[in-house]
Amino acid sequence: MKEFHCILQTKGGIGKSVAAAWLSQYLLNQGRAILAIECDQSNRTLSRYDRLETERLDLLDKDQQIDRRRFDALMERLVEDTEPTVIMDNGQASFVPLTRYLVECDALSLLEEAGRQSYVHCVVTGGQLGPSTLSGLEQILGALADSAQIVVWRNAHFGPIDEAAYQTVLEASGAALRDPVHLDRWSKPFEDDVQEMLQRFLTFNEAVQSPNLGLMTRQRLAMVQRRIFGELQYALAPEVGEVAHA
């Protein structure tokens, strides 16, 4: 089945574009043909990875509402296109209008009828932004859990996630989720290497194979890649199925 992966959250600066980039790289490593689309008008990140050949798409009009002509055209492309896997990275400003569009038009059900499975990826963090990201997850579950597979990225790099509040959101929704993707906080050498890779907009494969990086830097990045890709394998593999409140 063809797939549509949509990265959604109410907050910026929490790792959405990192999630989109690493998801794209994982799928490429799986031998999948992908189409990466960047809809974040305020933050050009995904399109700076040369290897991903990302397309830019401005979804919002001057009033910060969904430009329906553009999104209608994207929907037609998703229905008709033979591209098996599409990854769409969205900015903070598009969260409310895009979610409203998907619900009002029953867009994800339309994609399912056309043979395209939808996944909504939601980053949840700890720290000061934790409550806001949990609120975003709550909104996503309420609006889209019936028409898409929900994948939570648990980003601990801003601090520990409030487990009690997280479980409360899941239990209140009653939705079944895919297994979460854990982005654990690594020790400083790993953190420094990952940050350098991100700042240079290198894919894992490019970094691990780069003659400009030291042997142990490449070793640490290869270890992070295996960990992240293993998390995605478990979250997305068809044989895993849905896991409630993982």
Mean pLDDT over the full residue set? 91
Low-confidence stretches are 239-246
Task: Give the count of structural domains.
Answer: 1
Number of helices: 9
CATH level-4 homologous superfamily: P-loop containing nucleotide triphosphate hydrolases
Q: Under the CATH scheme, which class?
A: Alpha Beta
Strand order within the widest beta sheet: 3-2-4-1-5-6-8
C-alpha termini separation: 25 Å
Task: Write out key terms for the chains shown.
246 residues; alpha/beta; Rossmann fold; seven-stranded parallel sheet; two-stranded antiparallel ribbon; 44% helix; 17% strand
Topology:
Blueprint: E1 2-7, H1 16-29, E2 34-38, E3 55-56, H2 68-80, E4 85-89, H3 95-104, H4 107-113, E5 116-125, H5 130-144, E6 149-155, H6 163-173, E7 176-177, E8 181-183, H7 188-199, H8 204-208, H9 215-236, E9 243-244
Parallel strand pairs: 1-4, 1-5, 2-3, 2-4, 5-6, 6-8
Antiparallel strand pairs: 7-9
Helix pairs in contact: 5-6, 7-9
